[in-house]
Structures are given as C-alpha cells and as structure tokens.
User: What shape does this take?
Amino acid sequence: MSEYRNWDKELDRLEQGKSQYSWDELEELITDRLEDEKISEQEFETLMRRLMDIDCEL
Assistant: This one.
C-alpha cells in the first residue's frame, strides 16, 4: 500500500476518533513524509487539506 493511502486511512481513523496519533502528530508525520520524498507535493497538499478540515470539525 502506498504511503499516501496509509496516511489517508489514518485521517479516516482520526475523523472517527480512533487514530493512534493526535492532530499535531499527524501534521508532523505527513510533513516528514514529504521531506523524505515518500509522498508527492500534490499528495501532501491533499492530505493537509483533509487534516485542516478535520481540525475545523473538532
């Protein structure tokens, strides 16, 4: 499974209150994946947009 898919599923878990990570941890981990070139800039933007939407809901 791709890095992007893994983080997308983790965001699903965060929305459901079942994530093993906090919002801040996810922000840092996703940013690290971009810096390590594990995800593309476009994937990063998509994940961060989702994360920001979740933050607004909480």
